[in-house]
Design the sequence.
């Protein structure tokens, strides 16, 4: 009986430890950006050659940080004749340029608990369009989850990003990237992992321990 109780305690302790580690990694526990952090990131953007307009927008975006995760909505229209760039050479397709950009982005994103939520190809032109021109046709749409604005800036102030971003711009005829903080979200990896861990641990508990009672 003592061995059974200890084994069950170990099982559920492991589940709790795994979930706590994931939750702490996946969640922004540092809170909103401090004034010192904002000044640091703005300075880095200036050093990387960002335009005055981009600096102004970035500073406002950072100043309004509430410490929450957010989602970047992306709409992309790929170029039929992308420029020749050093890493992709001549006659490279828009996908080649975008893949070179994402070769840097994916490891940086995933290491910071940032990841795609949705990605897919457009199946028709925009069905509802008001107040904007030349926005009927797109090739792909995607939603990217960011753990925090801090994480996004950590990625974008890296000098490597400036170089790789040229490939993203070269791959596209037009694009929209707009950050959104969710009021309602039906899928959260923290909830999904809790559900999976609880289900698996419950099955193990039932199979190995409760039958012996």
Sequence:
């Amino acid at each position: 009986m003592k061995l059974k109780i200890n084994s069950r305690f170990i099982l559920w302790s492991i589940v709790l430890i795994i979930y706590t580690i994931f939750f702490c990694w996946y969640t922004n526990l540092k809170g909103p950006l401090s004034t010192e952090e904002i000044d640091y990131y703005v300075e880095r953007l200036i050093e990387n050659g960002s335009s005055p307009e981009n600096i102004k927008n970035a500073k406002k975006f950072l100043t309004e940080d509430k410490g929450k995760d957010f989602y970047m909505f992306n709409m992309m229209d790929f170029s039929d004749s992308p420029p020749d760039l050093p890493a992709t050479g001549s006659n490279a397709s828009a996908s080649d340029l975008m893949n070179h950009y994402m070769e840097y982005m994916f490891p940086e994103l995933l290491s910071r608990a940032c990841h795609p939520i949705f990605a897919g190809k457009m199946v028709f032109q925009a069905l509802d369009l008001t107040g904007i021109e030349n926005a009927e046709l797109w090739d792909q749409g995607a939603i990217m989850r960011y753990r925090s604005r801090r994480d996004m800036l950590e990625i974008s102030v890296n000098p490597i990003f400036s170089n790789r971003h040229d490939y993203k711009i070269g791959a596209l005829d037009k694009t929209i990237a707009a950050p959104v903080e969710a009021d309602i979200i039906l899928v959260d990896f923290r909830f999904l992992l809790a559900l999976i861990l609880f289900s698996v641990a419950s099955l193990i508990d039932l199979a190995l321990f409760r039958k012996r009672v």
Observations:
- Residues 2-26 form the longest helix (25 residues).
- Residues 119 and 142 are 4 Å apart (CA to CA).
